[in-house]
Design a protein that fits this description.
Helix content: over 70%
Shape: elongated
Number of helices: 6
Number of domains: 1
Largest sheet: 3 strands, mixed
Radius of gyration: 20 Å
Structural class: mainly alpha
Number of strands: 3
Order of helices and strands: HEEHHHHHE
Strand content: 5-15%
Strand order of the largest sheet: 1-2-3
CATH architecture: Up-down Bundle
Distance between the termini: 42 Å
Length: 154
């Protein structure tokens, strides 16, 4: 009897480990034809992620204009709009489909925008903000080089 119980526990633990790997680390991904990783999302999920990326781009434009015109309040406000608070509305089902490295890049990007906002307010140095933005943009380049989104086939 005990041998059956241990076998059942072992099988359940393996299933839990496989599920954790799938949803926490791998996500819903397949190799893409262009060498990147294709993240498989529903149409709504894809639209949400692409909308967030467009918000990043709009903020980058505002930050660039703000630094050029030494309008540090504009820089801070634009950066803060896409900081960590912006990701609060992301559904858990979507997070489960994203691979771990993508989530790390996204979290780091939001955090860097928050730091840029804070430094813009406290330091008021356009050159520093522009350097931070250049460093932050490396995340965008890395993400776009590594991933693409596809609508999952049902």
């Amino acid at each position: 009897m005990c041998k059956k119980c241990w076998s059942l526990v072992t099988i359940l633990l393996l299933l839990i480990a496989a599920g954790a790997y799938k949803f926490l680390i791998q996500g819903s991904t397949v190799p893409a034809s262009d060498g990147r990783v294709a993240i498989q999302l529903s149409t709504g999920e894809r639209d949400l992620v692409l909308s967030e990326m467009r918000a990043f781009l709009a903020s980058v434009q505002q930050i660039t204009t703000g630094t050029a015109n030494e309008e540090m309040a504009r820089v801070a406000a634009s950066a803060r709009q896409v900081g960590l608070a912006a990701q609060q509305g992301v559904p858990g089902t979507l997070m489960g489909k994203l691979p771990l490295e993508f989530k790390k890049l996204g979290f780091d990007t939001h955090t860097r925008f928050d730091q840029l906002a804070l430094d813009a307010e406290q330091l008021g140095d356009p050159g520093h903000s522009l350097t931070q933005l250049a460093d932050l943009m490396q995340n965008c380049v890395a993400c776009h080089a590594a991933y693409r989104f596809e609508v999952e086939q049902r």
